[in-house]
């Protein structure tokens, strides 16, 4: 099977860690490198978390630190969901793995320019790094095979009634990306909010008894225990893992072409992804997922860490 070459851009983050678990091992994906951005927590924390996950699971790819703040707005974080460290109550062994010296944005530009147009970007945090790379070197846009991003919603948001966190955390960056002309798949809350596991699924993962299953089990239990008040039935939702799953197995999902514009007015809809089926489409918006098959994909991929 020909693998899809991917770069994950993340703000690790509990569900980002699960995204990395899947990105590094799913047989349909070839993880080239990881770029990191501020979002769920400050950049020093999201970078530390990313490196720690890679070290723990033997994910041997280069990790690049990127932008430490949004393009225009003041920084927000999601500490109330992901905890002070950004990774809940997960504790890692002392960190030896180091980030590369090069900035993530320069890595994106150089890697995309040198590529054969075969790289899919999977941004699962604010779109700051991707927008900066597009502005720095617009010639990268036609080189991007596809952007499968976690962000936005055509229904309700999660940080405000109108906006989802990744878009709200850097709406101007999101606007640059959505208006770039790149091939975009938007994996938003409309689908990711429906991915929270029940206890049977958590236990099925834990029974795999390998380092990735232990990490994933700890993450799911933390989210289910701590986020009922914030997220209700969506607590434990695998937002970012769902985007990686789309890149691996698009046939599990239903999609609709839509025109997506980002609300940049500084009112109550700031950061909303305004989706329309009538305008000129600029994104494939994910509208549904086969829930059982999604969790089967997660379990099957996590099982590979035991081999
Ligand atoms: C998104 O926001 C972050 O907190 C999560 O990691 C995910 O990328 C969900 O709205
Ligand atoms: Ca994220």
Low-confidence stretches: none
Number of helices: 13
**How would you spell out the order of helices and strands?**
EHEHEHHEHEHHEHHHHHEEEH
CATH A-level architecture:
Alpha-Beta Complex
- Could you name the CATH homologous superfamily? Ribonucleoside hydrolase-like
Q: In percent, how helical is the residue content?
A: 25-40%
If you compute it from the alpha carbons, what radius of gyration comes out, rounded to the nearest whole angstrom? 17 Å
Shape designation: globular
Domains counted in the coordinates: how many?
Answer: 1
- Tell how many strands the DSSP assignment holds: 9
Strand order of the largest sheet: 3-2-1-4-5-6-9-7-8
CATH class: Alpha Beta
Which fold does the CATH topology refer to? Inosine-uridine Nucleoside N-ribohydrolase, Chain A
Bound molecules: beta-D-ribofuranose, calcium ion
Determine the strand fraction and express it as a percent band.
15-25%
Key terms:
Inosine-uridine Nucleoside N-ribohydrolase, Chain A, 38% helix, binds beta-D-ribofuranose, binds calcium ion, single chain, alpha/beta
Structural notes for this entry:
This protein has one domain: Inosine-uridine Nucleoside N-ribohydrolase, Chain A. Helices cover 38% and strands 18% of the residues. The protein is built from 13 helices and nine strands. A nine-stranded mixed β-sheet has the order 3-2-1-4-5-6-9-7-8, sandwiched between helices. It is globular and about 45 Å long. The two termini are 20 Å apart. Bound molecules: beta-D-ribofuranose and calcium ion. The site of calcium ion (CA) has 8 residues, from loops. Calcium ion (CA) binds next to loops.
């Amino acid at each position: 099977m020909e693998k899809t070459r991917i770069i994950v851009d993340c703000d690790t983050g509990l569900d980002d860690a699960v995204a990395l678990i899947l990105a590094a091992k799913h047989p349909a994906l070839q993880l080239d490198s990881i770029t990191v951005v501020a979002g769920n927590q400050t950049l020093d924390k999201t970078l530390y978390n990313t490196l720690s996950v890679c070290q723990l699971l033997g994910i041997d790819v280069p990790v690049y630190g990127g932008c430490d703040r949004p393009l225009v707005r003041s920084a927000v974080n999601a500490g109330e969901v992901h905890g002070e460290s950004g990774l809940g109550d997960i504790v890692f062994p002392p960190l030896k793995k180091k980030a590369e010296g090069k900035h993530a944005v320069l890595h994106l530009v150089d890697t995309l320019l040198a590529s054969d147009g075969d790289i899919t970007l999977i941004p699962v945090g604010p779109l700051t790094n991707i927008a900066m790379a597009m502005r720095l070197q617009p010639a990268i846009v036609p080189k991007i095979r596809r952007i499968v991003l976690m962000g936005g919603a055509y229904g309700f948001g999660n940080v405000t009634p109108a906006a989802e966190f990744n878009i709200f955390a850097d709406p101007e960056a999101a606007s640059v990306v959505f208006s770039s002309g790149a091939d975009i798949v938007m994996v938003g809350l409309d689908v990711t909010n429906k991915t929270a596991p029940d206890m049977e699924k958590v236990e099925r993962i834990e029974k795999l008894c390998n380092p990735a299953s232990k990490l994933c089990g700890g993450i799911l239990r933390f989210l289910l225990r701590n986020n009922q008040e914030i997220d209700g039935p969506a607590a434990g939702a695998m937002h970012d893992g769902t985007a990686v799953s789309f890149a691996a197995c698009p046939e599990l999902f239903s999609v609709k072409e839509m025109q997506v514009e980002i609300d940049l007015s500084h009112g109550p809809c700031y950061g909303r992804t305004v989706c329309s089926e009538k305008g000129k489409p600029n994104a494939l918006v994910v509208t549904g997922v086969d829930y059982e098959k999604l969790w089967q994909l997660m379990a099957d991929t996590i099982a590979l860490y035991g081999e």
